[in-house]
Design brief:
alpha/beta, Endonuclease, Chain A, about 50% helix, 12 helices
Amino acid sequence: MPTDNRVSTVLARRLGGELLRLRDAAGLTQPQAAQVLSATAAKIAKMERGWVPFRDPDVIALCTLYGVTDRAVVDGLLTLAKLDRERRKARGWWQKMPIVGGLGEYIAMEEVASRIRTWQPALVPGLLQTPEYVRALGVTSNWSHPDEIEALVTSRIKRQARLWGDAPLEFHAVLWEAALRQQVGTAEVMRAQLDHLVRMAELPHVHVQVLPFRAGRYHGVDGSFNIVSFAEPGALDVGYAESLASTLWAEGAEANAAYSRAFARVSQLSLAPLDSVSLIDAISKGM
């Protein structure tokens, strides 16, 4: 199977950034780190920038050099190294769908994640959207050709497969009430979408909360974002946000901690899951 070892990947940059932080904390230079691997300083630079896959022995040797004794931290770094190697080798369905565009790397991460937390102030999150809701979004966006819209629907349904199976993704979504009241498509489409949200919230691994209007405007986060987590305890989170013109990956420890704090805060301000489902149901019945 072909591999792509000459590109900088999100997982490798996240891992490399963490190793760079640990090296700086230990007061060591790149040449000093290179000595323990019998390598060059250039290789350490490539590793810290995410340009090469990481071997487990190299990660362990660097952690030992940097004085990292917490096994959970080492295991988290090894998890990212393993996942990055797997992602570089994999050829997923999304690579054959041009409609995916810049989402390709995010979907690759979603495929190997164990948990995703998402804050959505304007729309129902993609993993919980109905096909009719997706079509309505396609009609009102730049997707003008029916084939493009159907490709968008197909890709969304394929992504939703992560919520099913023997090891389903744990999904925690917090939505602003505006996302429930903003009509997408006809009233029937929106009612069906809200009813689908209620049904999905009944799954043990899907948690839906609503930040109601009465809670006041939450000024901490203006746009949507996702936090992607991985299987083994201690594995490092990766934050992801989209804007009109670009996507943003939070690859540093400080940036990801900020996303986690923001999500915890908006979750605390939101209704409990049962109360959230009651509000969604009431909005649906009122349409």
